[in-house]
TrEMBL record:
EC number of the protein: 2.3.1.286
Active-site residues, record numbering mapped to chain: H116 (proton acceptor)
Residues that hold Zn(2+) according to the record: C124, C127, C149, C152
SUPFAM superfamilies named in the record: DHS-like NAD/FAD-binding domain
InterPro entries noted in UniProt: DHS-like_NAD/FAD-binding_dom, NAD-dep_sirtuin_deacylases, Sirtuin, Sirtuin_cat_small_dom_sf, Ssirtuin_cat_dom
Keywords: Metal-binding, NAD, Transferase, Zinc
Record protein name field: protein acetyllysine N-acetyltransferase
Amino acid sequence: MTQSRAALPLVAVLTGAGISTDSGIPDYRGPNGLWRRDPEAEKLVTYDYYVSDPDIRRRSWQMRLQGPARHAEPNAAHRAVAALEQRGFPVRVLTQNVDGLHQRAGLSARKVLELHGTAREVVCLACHERGPMEDALARVEAGEEDPACRSCGGVLKSATVMFGERLDPMVIGEAMGIAKACQVFFAVGSSLQVQPAASLAGIAAEHGARLVIVNAEPTPYDDVAHEVVREPIGTALPRLLAALSA
């Protein structure tokens, strides 16, 4: 028998880098993570280095131009979350990722809370004007090594929260509200080590949600989870979400 829409549980899905590895985007802290392979790469997304060093900015633009995230496509896990919404479930995604793949998979943009911002846009550090990342990358391809804001000449950066920047307190507040209100909380592909985003799993469990962790490596919240799944995310998450809607 099909559940009525009113009876369906609110499902929150916290997603980290692990959900996008099947799309060709490497994670950061896993066994083969970017920071383990190239510790210097962390400087490219560290605010103080980026603002003070033009060479870091030039390398950062090249990383975005040539990196796999630019042309990445949603994978089965992203599509499974979007399909859950299409089946009528109230779904909210709290993502630590900046790749925009949940939206590209078909999930309503208003259902996605991007905790660390988005790499699909750029922002000027002087006048705060925003624009498409693709426009900035086209300028880099045309020969501008460190494109400046066309409105004021200020430094442009991706509209992501770099290391050394504060997360938007309003976004975090909204995420905490969702964690407290949901009945089911999936933590997917996240090490659950970066605060305050990681604490959302604990908040959900404390407020009575069923906590399911899907991650290749152990996390600090495994002991409070109702279920811990170590299977590949691309097969595990579609199966888990399909069972939820059965």
